[in-house]
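Posting for a labmate who doesn't have an account.
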Amino acid sequence: MESSHLPPAFRRAVTYGAGALAAVLTGAALCALPAPSATPRTARIADTAASSSPATGSVTPSAASSTPSSGPATPSSGSGTASAACGTSPAPTAGTPSASPLTSPDIEPAAPSDAASATPADAASTTPSDAASATPSDAASATTSAASAFHGIYAFSGGNTSDLATDPDVAGRSLVYYWAQLEPRQGQYCWNLIDQDMRPWVTAGKKVVLRVSAAGWAKWDTAADSAHGTPAWVYAQGVRSVTEQDGAVMPEYWSQTFESDLDTFLAAFAARYDGDAAVSAVDISIGVGGESKADSEKNPGLLPLWQSIGYTDELWWGYAQHTITTYTSLFHRTPLALMPDKTFIGGTDGYDESKIVNYAVAKGIWLQDNGVVPGRTLSAPWGRTPVIAEMRGATGDTGDNLADDLEAAVAEHPVFILVFTSDITDADRAVLHQVAATAGTGG
């Protein structure tokens, strides 16, 4: 896409990001990690790899301020200014997560209608203008050239701990943050939070997936204040919000002010981490928890809540396309992964999950299945670009058997499998080792 066609605020963000990226590249060399070793192929789980009434929330004019813990700022060689508000969280007790697991009980297994999401008829729901903007030429080069071989099990949830960095069956870590953590004051970036969480994994010769969300459920990560994922200073500029039944504050994503501020943050984020050899992928974060839907709480009054600040499926689609374009315009070397989750809450004809899945695949973007369910099969275009498979929840919450969950994940032929930290135990060592031993293969 020609930069002249982008909104002025976004052009400024890209220009700023390009200048900051040059500073990063001249200031420090990227840390190179060895490529995954080609471990001999072993038997796979069941050979599956061979086959492929709560109260309604209220609207609030602004979010409650989320104040990060105080502490000395860590000097940053990347873009932006290190904030004096950037501090470190207390070290968790060994073996104890620092926060509640980031579970996804809201993600429903794909129904037959969802499995058919890639049919030509559904693909036709994309308007001509949408199709034109989703050509492969717009895709970030990293997304189309990335190998789809299986690179192993990544730890997920339980806070961004380093407890499993030396686990021989764990290849890396999914690190999840909220925008308010990383930019508590406008233009002041807390990259030290990411860098310190990455360091043990890099030291162990492993890699990470990065995700930065603007909203979440209150219980997901109390230490990171997931209930207030968008910085308070964004709301202070007039961006509206809703407050969900659990107290989580979620923004008016489609506000031009929100989009402009997020674009600027993402430019700095990309300048810092695009092309970092320790980063396997970056999640394209759109809605709650980074997934593609504005809100996933089981709130019977969810749609009226969001309509009270102007939500329509058309507005949401415009915001989703804008955000995807922002990421693909800024990240050129690190693969990007989209996390579909129904996407639309308004029920408008032609607006369903297939719309965003087809759009992303046309751009060469990876897809991340954040609700792996035993017995479910994902249909095309899933699999046409690399897939990250994430368990839908810890087995202690879902009642699943880990062996069944891993079997279902392997069947998706993923590049990584995100496994909840509470399930990476010696009790399940045999099945974890069996899957981990296939790293370097087709999955």
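Reply:
Got it, the structure tokens are right above this. The longest strand covers residues 172-178.
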